Amino acid sequence: MSVTESGYSSAMTEPRKRPALMTVTEAAAARIRDIVGRSEKPVVGVRVGVDKGGCAGMAYQLDLADKLAPGDEVVEDKGVRIVIDPKAILYLIGSEMDFQIDKLSARFVFKNPNEVSACGCGESVQLEPAKPEALARGA
Length: 139
Known about the structure:
Low-confidence stretches: none
Structural class: alpha/beta
CATH topology: Hypothetical Protein Aq_1857, Chain: A
CATH superfamily: HesB-like domain
Number of domains: 1
């Protein structure tokens, strides 16, 4: 580690590698690859966000992203690209996106440390923004 003329160590001038905002399971990645591969128009990934709605207050939103918007956070994991809406970032820190198939349904599900509660039907959740200590340790 060297010291620059300003007195700062050169190690301090290099940006800290940030952990991924969220991760995807292999099942979610396979399903995303399938959806993106079947798209009739070019897409850059799957956009994930949260919106007000449902009996618990918020719901996860998923859509194909045809372009990146200012402020979007991009996560690349297991060969897929997740585009995170800037308004959802604090609600999704540390989340894992999975894809589950059971007898009567197939859906994306989230394991989210910021989830306070969920409705009985599983369609909506109550989320709180990530706590400062989660931000300090990088998720």
